């Protein structure tokens, strides 16, 4: 409509409408053509006009399978041990951490371990540390033939350790059988030793030792975590609930279960991670993590009776009265 343009329509409304109609028709026909061509392609592929199909890859599927690619984040800790990586992916739970975005699951995976779980490349970090701890001497605290001990890179308490099993084929609790009972006892004894060491440094701490039934990081590992939950890395509901609901399985109970049943009896109840936030001492409900943290910093209620039994909590003798009073 600009009179200074050589193709000015001179306010010819009819011609203008016709040109616009033809332009939009051509646009929509091209779009429909692309949609139809995409529908004919195998699932997971993308066709881009002007490119050969072989030049376009679905990286979400091919990257984990590329045997030529080395795992660049093998220093990650359970929450990924790499000091070079500052992403929040691993922070999802120390190992659920939290974790949902960090997990790669088989679509028809069975929770009892009858079907193997597919692990993303970053989720292999603990496995590589357990198999080759000599490559991670700056990160590990203790190495033996059976276990490796290291700090969680994203601790959910003032003290938060991981005790890794070094045995092949033990990706998670679903792989545990009666023949691994001695290993479970060894892992518990090592975790207990480190908890007692920390208690000598700070007698006010209280520890709990346990496992997550469906971790996001490969390789069986025991959490040794202080119950203050005083950490900037505890940010989300799933962080809290992964350690303060039935999702967290106490080491002493697991050992008894494997001894009597020959394996761990696991229940795949991910709804536990989305439960309302409740104080782990007085069980009061709170709407947000900041409100919950503010409360637990001042809560002096005793721990629930079930945690005070069977050695589920570890504390200094001088602090025992304060824990169960």
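^ Assign residues to that structure.
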């Amino acid at each position: 409509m600009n009179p200074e343009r050589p193709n000015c329509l001179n306010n010819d409304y009819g011609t203008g409408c016709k040109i616009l109609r033809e332009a939009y028709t051509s646009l929509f026909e091209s779009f429909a053509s692309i949609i139809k061509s995409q529908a004919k392609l195998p699932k997971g592929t993308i066709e881009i006009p002007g490119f050969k199909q072989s030049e376009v890859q679905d990286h979400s599927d091919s990257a984990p399978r590329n045997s030529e690619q080395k795992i660049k984040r093998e220093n990650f800790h359970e929450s990924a041990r790499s000091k070079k990586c500052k992403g929040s992916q691993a922070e999802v739970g120390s190992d659920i951490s939290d974790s949902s975005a960090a997990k790669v699951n088989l679509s028809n995976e069975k929770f009892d371990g009858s079907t193997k779980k597919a692990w993303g490349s970053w989720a292999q970090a603990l496995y590589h540390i357990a198999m080759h701890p000599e490559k991670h001497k700056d990160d590990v605290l203790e190495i033996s033939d059976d276990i490796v001990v290291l700090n969680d890179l994203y601790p959910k308490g003032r003290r938060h350790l991981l005790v890794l099993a070094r045995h092949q084929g033990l990706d998670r609790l679903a792989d545990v059988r009666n023949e691994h009972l001695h290993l479970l006892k060894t892992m518990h004894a090592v975790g207990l030793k480190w908890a007692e060491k920390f208690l000598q440094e700070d007698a006010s701490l209280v520890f709990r030792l346990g496992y997550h039934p469906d971790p996001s990081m490969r390789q069986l590992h025991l959490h040794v975590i202080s119950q203050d939950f005083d950490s900037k890395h505890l940010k989300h509901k799933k962080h809290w609930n992964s350690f303060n609901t039935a999702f967290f399985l106490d080491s002493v109970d697991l050992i008894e279960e494997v001894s009597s049943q020959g394996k761990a009896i696991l229940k795949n109840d991910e709804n536990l991670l989305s439960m309302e936030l409740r104080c782990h001492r007085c069980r009061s409900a709170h709407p947000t993590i900041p409100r919950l943290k503010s409360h637990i910093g001042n809560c002096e209620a005793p721990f629930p009776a079930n945690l005070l039994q069977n050695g589920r909590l570890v504390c200094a003798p001088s602090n025992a009265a304060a824990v169960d009073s």
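The radius of gyration is 27 Å.
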